[in-house]
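Allow me, if you will, to draw on your knowledge of protein folds for a short while. I have a record of one protein: its chain in single-letter code and its fold written as discrete structure tokens. The full record is reproduced below for your convenience:
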Amino acid sequence: MANLLTDRAFWVNYWERKKGLAVQLPANYLFHRQLAEVVSKNDVKDAIELGGFPGYYAVFLKKYLKLDVTLLDYFVHPPVVQALLEKNDLKESDIHIIETDLFNYQPEKQYDLVLSCGLIEHFNDTADIINRHIAFVKPGGTLFITLPNFNAVNGWFQKTFDKENYDKHNIESMNPRLLKNICEAAGLKQVQAGYFGRFSVWLEDESQKSIAVRFFKKAVWITGKIFTKIIPFDSKNLSPYIILVAKK
């Protein structure tokens, strides 16, 4: 699987060191406006979140947008999912779970909405992973993909202070024009791809960084937030995310 920049061991280690995964998701969760618009405009009834363990967006879509949701990932730890569901007043049967390798799985059904948030950038072949998403989309359905923008200031932080994590990402995939071209080549319509968010920086396992790094990161975060509040705009150099939306 040369296409993959990570392996199962990476994700097992990644999630096992995470604490406090069972959180109550707010109605204004990240990308909530964009998802609500997609659901309302397209009469979406069901959705699948790919590579989404522990299932934050599946839970969000079930809790707030009342969709029939499925979570697919090749690492799923049921107690974590169960704790997340309980924290959000949901029960185990509210989410369908498929634990499988996306590269060895043929979709058994298609969905009105297929989404992933922070998945495609972990693969070398961007067109291939996007086309695997498209296979899950019903005719007339919607593809919704988000990924970080490491071509922005946040990427410099990752590369400088967490090179190991930075190298797990395909930086070339973080290009709205590339993403749009891939979708159009696959026959998708109404393709929209662009930068999202005014400004943000983050570091994985920030508590383990030095005091100097944490202080510097906070200073940059505050400065960037103030600047983009005074002069608000989405841009390649500052926006922390990229959003791709397309119709099949």
Q: What stands out?
A: Residues 211-230 form the longest helix (20 residues). The chain has a mean pLDDT of 91.
